């Protein structure tokens, strides 16, 4: 019996594509692709460290692009960002069937990998959309609009474009407190920034640094939110369906000042 | 600005605006220009939801709730004894910009009670929009109410700055309007709609020749009807809705269950339940007409004047047309797939793509995500196993209702036990 191969990569998308490259190059039939950070405790396996190389990643991606539509490529990337355990293996199997097929603009939704990827991509897309909706900027004394989030999936890369385009004339920072990195716009470009020590953006420090009118506008928003509600149509189930409780921590209108 | 005063005004004027159900921020695209503020991607974002489950996308307020009219269904009617307030133009601009910068909203929805006369009122709404666009370089969404009776010149100007314009027809029938809003004329509602429609058509033709033609109301126009205030049937409502969709190229018609706010012998009494289920059925019908290829007389006609409350309009149509079923999933055309209960347009799309690769069986259909408890009685697929019993409308209806879980189910449980 051949031992199963485990390919470890650094967690980046390029790193993952290099695993695909290796699987083809060394004809590894059923590898398990896994992030370095996830420990391996399986018996009878061979572990290989995959080094991320941009040119190899680009070759794989270029090949994938030739066989698929823009939507499929987007879904593929979104599914990767879901960080769901084992998604890399579904993605590999998806890629294999994409490379094997004739160029065809129809999508085979009766193939279980394709269906799975499209469903996961939908979940990630929904989370992306929620971040676009539920981010609440707070203006600090130095003119920076700050928001902290902790999305279910790693969606910050997907929302950069939206915020860059929309808030082109103000400095802003959106920080993912779970993954400990943020996206920062300085009026020219969006940069990815990381800091291990999160006290600088804790709620308390932020509040001490509010600009003069920040609290007033938050109060006005709360007043507005309260007054648009129609009491005789109360529908808690629907309310929670649209606005699950795990998002309330971001929302000024859901927290009393 | 004095925040306390603004806060008081905001509470009064948001409260008065909330019965306007439209909160869409979708349907019109506007790019961010010269690194200004905001954009509109055309897909719309709901930034929050109220406890009644409705989306909060826009800052929806009245300019003022002073009004010269006395429409029976309206909270701000002249004869109602309530607190009145009015915003200054700059105040609305500041609120919009500051809410927008904090990502609270997609833009502004500005309506107004009518003070002095229609043109005077409309002019103030237009000035807010103009200031936002020209002075603040704001590219977010702006929805202005077209005040009935406004002159064509002002309507033209409004469309240059607004993304969407809307006139609420409110009462679906002319006779109902006479009864409840005696000061308003039907023609006054129609005139601004007509103007906006013609401007949009003209814009589109000119745009083909001269690229730089100024944009005119890119998100089109919409209207709203109150449901259950006068005794109109669902057929009356949906026929008028269809009329507005066709005649004025409406993007949306909204249906708003009447919320009793005033005691008046012409109206349902205070404490009457808001007809939310009926409203829901009307929206379902609206969707069937706009996206599922149904025509209005299939769903509502002389022998079927009102929608069933206990089942949705699609299932209701199917039960009246059982001779067309079962449908073969692997062969039927798109139009017929869309008519199967439990299959939405997303699933139709997936079925059409997937069946080019292989004949689909039950497991494929389940994985695609169609609702089996409804669809199973009406389809055949690549399997010998399917529902073969005699199809009778009553047994099917009770089978489906038993297995489905609707939030309205509690209202119908008793009726059901009579048949089963």
List the topology elements.
The complex is a heterodimer of chains A (257) and B (420).
Chain A: E1 4-9, H1 13-25, E2 32-35, E3 45-49, H2 54-67, H3 70-81, H4 87-100, H5 112-134, E4 138-139, E5 144-149, H6 156-166, E6 171-176, E7 181-185, E8 190-194, H7 203-208, H8 214-227, H9 236-242
Parallel strand pairs in A: 1-2, 1-3, 5-6
Antiparallel strand pairs in A: 4-5, 6-7, 7-8
Chain B: H1 3-17, E1 48-49, E2 55-56, E3 58-62, H2 89-101, E4 107-111, H3 118-134, E5 141-145, H4 152-161, E6 164-166, H5 174-180, H6 186-209, E7 221-227, H7 234-248, E8 252-257, H8 276-291, H9 296-299, H10 313-320, E9 327-328, H11 334-337, H12 345-354, H13 362-368, H14 372-375, E10 379-380, H15 393-403, H16 413-419
Parallel strand pairs in B: 3-4, 4-5, 5-6, 6-7, 7-8, 9-10
Antiparallel strand pairs in B: 1-2
Which features would summarize this protein structure in a list?
heterodimer; A: 257 residues; alpha/beta; five-stranded mixed β-sheet; 9 helices; elongated; B: 420 residues; six-stranded parallel β-sheet; two-stranded antiparallel sheet; 16 helices; 9% strand
Overview of this protein structure:
- The complex is a heterodimer of chains A (257) and B (420).
- Chain A has 257 residues and is an alpha/beta fold.
- Chain A has 9 helices and 8 strands.
- The radius of gyration of chain A is 22 Å and the shape is elongated.
- The N and C termini of chain A lie far apart (64 Å).
- The model of chain A has no long low-confidence stretch (mean pLDDT 89).
- In chain B, 43% of the residues are buried.
- Chain B has helices spanning 3-17, 89-101, 118-134, 152-161, 174-180, 186-209, 234-248, 276-291, 296-299, 313-320, 334-337, 345-354, 362-368, 372-375, 393-403, 413-419; strands spanning 48-49, 55-56, 58-62, 107-111, 141-145, 164-166, 221-227, 252-257, 327-328, 379-380.
- Chain B is globular and about 75 Å long.
- The longest helix of chain B has 24 residues, at 186-209.
- Residues 416-420 of chain B have low confidence and may be disordered.
- Chain B is an alpha/beta fold and 420 residues long.
- Helix content of chain B is 41%, strand content 9%.
- In chain B, helix 2 packs across helix 3, helix 3 runs parallel beside helix 4 and helix 4 crosses helix 6.
């Amino acid at each position: 019996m051949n031992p199963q191969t485990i390919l470890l990569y650094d967690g980046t998308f390029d790193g993952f594509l290099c695993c695909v490259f290796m699987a083809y190059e060394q004809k590894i039939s059923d590898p398990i692709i896994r992030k370095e950070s996830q420990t391996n405790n399986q018996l009878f396996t061979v572990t290989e460290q995959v080094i991320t190389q941009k040119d190899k990643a680009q070759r794989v991606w270029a090949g994938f692009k030739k066989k698929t539509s823009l939507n499929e490529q987007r879904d593929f990337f979104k599914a990767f960002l879901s960080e769901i355990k084992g998604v890399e293996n579904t993605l590999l199997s998806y890629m294999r069937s994409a490379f094997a097929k004739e160029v065809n603009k129809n999508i085979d939704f009766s193939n279980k990998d394709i269906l799975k990827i499209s469903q996961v991509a939908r979940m990630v897309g929904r989370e992306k959309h929620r971040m676009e909706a539920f981010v609440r900027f707070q203006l600090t004394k130095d003119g920076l609009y700050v928001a902290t989030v902790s999305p279910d999936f790693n969606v910050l890369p997907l929302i950069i474009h939206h915020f860059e385009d929309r808030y082109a004339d103000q400095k802003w920072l959106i920080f993912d407190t779970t993954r400990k990195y943020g996206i920062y716009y300085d009026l020219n470009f969006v940069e990815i920034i990381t800091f291990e020590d999160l006290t600088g953006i804790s709620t308390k420090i932020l509040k001490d640094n509010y600009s003069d009118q920040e609290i007033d506008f938050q109060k006005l928003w709360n007043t507005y939110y309260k007054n648009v509600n129609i009491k005789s149509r109360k529908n808690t189930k629907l309310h929670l369906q649209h606005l699950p409780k795990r998002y309330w921590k971001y929302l000024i209108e859901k927290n009393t000042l | 600005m004095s925040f306390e005063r603004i806060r008081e005004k905001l509470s009064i004027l948001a409260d008065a605006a909330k019965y306007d159900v439209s909160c869409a921020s979708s349907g019109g695209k506007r790019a961010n220009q010269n690194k200004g503020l905001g954009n509109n991607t055309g897909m719309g974002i709901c930034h929050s939801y109220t406890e009644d489950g409705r989306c909060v996308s826009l800052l929806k307020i009245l300019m003022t709730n002073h009004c010269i009219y006395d429409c029976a269904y309206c909270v701000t009617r002249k004869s109602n004894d309530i607190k009145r307030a009015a915003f200054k133009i700059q105040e609305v601009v500041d609120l919009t910009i500051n809410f927008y910068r904090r990502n609270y909203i997609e833009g502004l929805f500005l309506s107004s009670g009518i003070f002095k006369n229609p043109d005077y009122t409309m002019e103030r709404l237009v000035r807010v929009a103009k200031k936002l666009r020209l002075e603040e370089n704001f590219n977010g969404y702006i929805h202005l109410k077209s005040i009935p009776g406004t002159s064509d010149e002002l309507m033209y100007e409004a469309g240059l700055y607004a993304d969407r314009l809307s006139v609420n027809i409110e009462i679906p029938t002319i006779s109902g309007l006479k009864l409840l809003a005696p000061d308003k004329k039907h023609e006054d509602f129609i005139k601004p709609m007509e103007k906006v429609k013609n401007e949009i058509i003209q814009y589109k033709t000119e745009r083909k020749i001269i690229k730089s033609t100024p944009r005119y109301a890119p998100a089109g126009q919409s209207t709203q009807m109150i449901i259950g205030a006068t005794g109109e049937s669902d057929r009356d409502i949906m026929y008028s809705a269809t009329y507005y969709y066709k005649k004025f190229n409406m993007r949306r018609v909204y249906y708003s269950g009447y919320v009793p706010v005033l005691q008046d012998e012409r109206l349902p009494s205070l404490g009457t339940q808001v007809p939310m289920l009926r409203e829901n059925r009307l929206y379902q019908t609206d969707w069937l007409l706009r996206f599922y290829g149904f025509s209005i007389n299939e769903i509502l006609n002389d022998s079927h004047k009102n929608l069933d409350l206990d089942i949705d309009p699609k299932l209701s149509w199917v039960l009246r047309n059982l001779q067309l079923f079962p449908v073969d999933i692997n062969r039927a055309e798109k139009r017929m797939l869309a008519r199967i209960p439990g299959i939405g347009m997303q699933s139709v799309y997936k079925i059409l793509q997937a069946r080019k690769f292989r004949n689909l069986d039950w497991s494929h259909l389940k994985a695609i995500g169609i609702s089996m408890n409804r669809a199973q009685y009406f389809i055949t697929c690549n399997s010998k196993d399917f529902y073969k019993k005699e199809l009778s409308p009553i047994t099917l209806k009770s089978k489906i209702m038993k297995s489905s879980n609707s939030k309205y189910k509690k209202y119908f449980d008793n009726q059901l036990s009579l048949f089963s």
